[in-house]
Amino acid sequence: MGLQSNLLNFAFQLTTDHDQAHDLLQDTTLKALANEDKYVDNVNFKGWIFTIMRNIFINNYRQNVRQSTVIDHTEDLYHLNVCQESGLDTPEGTVAVKEITVALNSFADEYRIPFNMFVAGYKYNEIAEKLNLPLGTIKSRIFFARKKLREQLQDYAY
């Protein structure tokens, strides 16, 4: 209870909104109480509880991003789920998107599908669960897809 004011300040720094900060504080308190058996004595309690808060904030953020992702149903995947400030309105941006789309579509499904899911905001373990594959396999496939994409699009390197 003595850390509540510190936690509330930290929550406000993360959320920049008073209501969300109070919700985050409440979620953190509930999670800490529900998992008090996992706390090991003589371990930094303040660090443990702040880590819980940070992890809850990150997980909520990722979930919000995933829920707000708009799937591109255009025939050639023109938009690729990018934000409006992406430069798509310029001819160079349009060409770049088409080249990225062509590069991604050239990948085998085993690399393209996990990579697209990762870009859409899914976490590694969620992808592994949905595709019924080991976590290490998903991580390596996404790594190799990134590497191959970098190689194919090296002209865009700054």
Question: What do these coordinates show?
Answer:
This protein has helices at residues 4-15, 18-34, 45-68, 91-105, 109-119, 124-131, 135-152. The termini are far apart. With 158 residues, the protein is an all-alpha fold. The chain is elongated, with a radius of gyration of 20 Å. It has seven helices and no strands. The model has no long low-confidence stretch (mean pLDDT 79). 66% of the residues lie in helices and 0% in strands. Helix 1 crosses helix 2, helix 1 (4-15) packs parallel to helix 3 and helix 5 (109-119) packs across helix 7.
- Counting DSSP H or I runs of 4 or more residues, the number of helices is 7
Q: Which regions have little confidence, pLDDT < 50, spanning 5+ residues?
A: none
Largest sheet: none
Strand content: under 5%
Helix content: 55-70%
How far apart the termini lie comes to 50 Å
Number of strands: 0
Radius of gyration: 20 Å
| Helix/strand/pairing category | mainly alpha
Return the average pLDDT rounded to an integer: 79
How do the SSEs run, as a string of H and E? Answer: HHHHHHH
Q: What is the general shape?
A: elongated
